[in-house]
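## Example record

The block below lists the input lines for one assembly entry, exactly as stored, with component labels intact.
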Amino acid sequence: MKNVTASMAGTVINVLVQAGDQVNAGQDVVVLESMKMEVPIQAEADGKVAEVKVHVGDFVNDGDVILVLE
Amino acid sequence: MSKQLEQTLKERIAQVEQGGEEKYHAKLKEQNKLFVRDRLKLLFDGEFMVEDGLFANFTAGDLPADGVVTAIGKVNGRTVCVMANDSTVKAGSWGARTVEKIIRIQETAEKMRVPLIYLVDSAGARITDQLEMFPGRRGAGRIFYNQVKLSGKIPQVCILFGPSAAGGAYIPAFCDVVIMVDKNASMYLGSPRMAEMVIGEKVTLEELGGARMHCSVSGCGDILAANEEEAIQAARRYLGFFPADYTKEPPVEAARPPKPDARDINEIVPENQNTPFNMYDLIDALVDEGSFFEIKKLFAQELITGFARLDGKPVGIVANQPRVKGGVLFVDSADKAARFITLCDAFQIPLLFLADVPGFMIGTAVERAGIIRHGAKMIAAMAEATVPKISVIVRKAYGAGLYAMASSAFEPDACLALPGAQIAVMGPEAAVNAVYSNKIQAIEDPQERQAFIMEKRREYQQDIDIYLLASNLIVDAIVPPSELRGELIRRFGVYGSKRQIFSERKHPVYPV
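Predicted structure tokens for the full assembly:
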């Protein structure tokens, strides 16, 4: 299991993957809005999405788990 | 003189040059490490090498060269001084002669005004010798004193091949750049064993002070190399951007066009201010092909720092990376910028700022971390830099982010803008919210409210229109994106004669 975490505080504006999807390292998985900027969050490793922990509109802090990879 | 004397000498030289016992050489191989003299062969051009102190501590019998090689050689055809620990001799630890040799090569580099390279692989002080090597006037402290004194006079480069422990960890800390070999290099004040004994923490060496940690989290490392050969090549490449000392000009190479598949800048930079793009694409489109050499690539990635060549001439680039954390400036990115700007300014390397910055980060976490004083550090370093400096507002520069990226008030030689650039205290969304918050709340009909917001944003856009800013002489030129490289080359060319003393005084009171 590997966690993908938020790189900075912000609001989730787009979730680009769902549980079961195969993702590659470097792929955008969630987009945050912070400081009026779109901030894409990337998977750091290849893997299958086990669980998406956030919904559009959620506030996340730096380091919060966004999704879990198998 | 009898031939026998010469014969004996040659045998003794050969013996010392073999370093420590065979079992320690075998250990090097296990660790994917090279013997110190093989490292020097890779570092230097050809065979040329001048060495002092080969017979240091010879009479001790088991301490060849007292565990350190100090030598003068050539890198890229230019003279450099080197100190290199030999970890086959008492784990590269420092005795009295070791320290004296290091101090002497520092003095030599200072007198000759050439770069000094530290090849570090050492367990630290030899406790048994501490009275002789630790506390005195020419004890180990003197090495650090000299490093501080040499800083900014001559380039000081550290390659870390193994541990750099306790006091020894300050050698890299006082160098301009630290190249670390992944898995083998480490820096720490207290070892994992000591951490467990003294504070009760259980931690691996890699987590505590490994190369990857230092290059991505602490910022004590600048370049993470996969192996020793790569680390040594990185040092050679790095030195290719630097003059021998601060009074000379950085070396010029043959000019090359940007890489052939570099994209059109109009395509790279999105019109929408909030959409991320990859700043590396813009750098590729501007600089000579293959010339970009990044510093602190893994650390505070929302800001990019690195050397490159424009028409063959070295330039230091400080660029926001909108692809990471929106390109917002944080505590670490401010530190990274401050350090890099100071490095370029010390050695006559012109600075190019590529600004696309929403500002400094806000919120509890960064305020508690002292983002104001870290931001002040970056702004101070940038303000003080008297090398030719050009600021390009690529897309937007808001708030103190504008100041930090060398905008007009900080005496860049030019503040240039691309035609879509926006410069303001804050972006349109935030500004309209700030100014009209009460009015917006008071409008009950959602459609009407949205229409009001859009109208105010449009008005705001007009107020910060780039032609209005050029009309008020706030930017010096608006540059067609397709002509930006040529414009930068021409401008850095004419600014080359710039000589300026920033301010007469002893030294500033640095924000830290």
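The interface with chain B takes residues 7-9, 33-40, 61-62 of chain A (CB under 8 Å). The longest strand of chain A covers residues 28-34.
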